[in-house]
Amino acid sequence: METRFVKSQTLYPIFSYVSFAVAFILSIITLYFQNIYCFIMTFIFIGIGIMSYFIFIFRLKKYFSILIQTTSDILEQKEHSSIIIDGESPIAVLYSHLSILDTRMKAMIERLKQEQIHLKDYIEDISHQIKTPLTSMILREEMLLEMIDDSQEKEILLHIYSQTEQIKDLIESLLHLAQIESHSIEYHKDEYYFDNIIEQIDYLLEPLKQKHHVHFQLHDVHHLIYCDEKWMSEAIENILKNCIEQKDHSIIDITCENHSSYIDIYIQDHGDGFHLEDIPHVFERFYQGKSKKGKGIGIGLSMSKGIIDDHHGNIDVINHNGALFKITLPHKKTKSKFIVTK
Q: Which residues span the domain enclosing 65?
C-alpha cells in the first residue's frame, strides 16, 4: 500500500516568511501614518506567519516520525507501507534515498537467502555422497573383524577401522563447520537447564575422560540458558574436549554466573594454557599453534565460536591457571546481541 504526500514541503515556510515581511512593512506604515487598519492588518499577518510556522514544524515532526518508523522497520526487516513524499526538500530527498536503500537491501537479502539454500543443498548432497561409501566401508571392516582370528591381521584391521572412523568424524565436523559458516542452520531455540546439558555431554565424553584421568567439577550450573540444545551441546562439547586433552591436569571447573540479561559460563582447565601468540587465533579454523595438543585439526573451537555467535553470544579465552574459556549468552528476554566492552 502506498501513501503519497503531495503538498510542497516549502509552502508553509514561504507563507511564514512572506507574512512576517508584510507585517514588518505594515508596521512601518502604521508607525508613519498612524492608520488603525494597517495596525489590524499587521497583527493578522503576524498571526498568519506564526500559524504557518507552527504548521510547518508540526508537519516536519510528522515526517521525521514516519522516517524513524520506516528506518526501524527496515532494520528489523518488517513489512511497511510505502510512502512517497513529493518535492525537492531535504526530507523528500532523504526518504527517496531511504526507499532506494530499502529496495537494494531486500534484493541483497533475497539473493543471499537463495545462495544459502543452494549451498545448503550442495553440502547435504556432498554429505550423502561421502557418508554412503564410508558407512559401507565401516560395516565391511566390522564384518572382517568378526571373521579374522589371526591377531596380527586383526591388529592391522583395527588400525584401518580406527582411521576410517576418524575420517568419518572429520568429514562430519567439516560439514558442520560449512553449515555454520554458510548460516544454513535453522536453530530451534528454547530454554534448557545448563546442568542437564552438561550431564549429557559428561556421559558422551566419559571414555575420553577416563583415558586422560579427568573429571568435571560443577559450580552453580542449575540455570536456564536460551539455545538450540543440540548445537549448543556440540559447542560446549568441543570446548570440553579441548580442555580434556590438556594432559597436565585432572579437574575441569565449570561455573555459571547469572545476570539480569545474560549468563556467563566459565570453563577452566588447569593445564599449561595457550601460548600468548596463539590466543588471538584460538578460534580460527585449521589454526595449529605452538600449544597444540591432541589429534584435532583446529576446527572444534571454530565451530563452537560460530554456534555461540549465531546465538547472539560471545566466547573468549585467557590464560588463568590454565586455559579459561568465558561464554556469554543473552537470556530469552534480551532482544539485542550482547556487546563486549573492553
A: 2-87
Contact 159, 148 (CB under 8 A): no
pLDDT tens-digit map of 70-95:
777 777 777 766 666 656 667 777 77
Domain identity same for 199 and 324:
yes
Q: What is the mean pLDDT of each run of 10 residues along the chain (342 residues)?
A: 48 70 77 74 79 78 79 72 62 76 83 78 76 85 84 86 83 78 82 94 90 90 93 93 79 92 92 84 77 63 91 91 92 64 45
CA pair distance 188, 203, nearest whole angstrom: 23
Are 263 and 327 spatial neighbours (Cβ–Cβ below 8 Å)? no
The answer to whether residue 94 is domain-embedded is no
For residue 129, the tally of other CB atoms under 10 A from its CB is 9
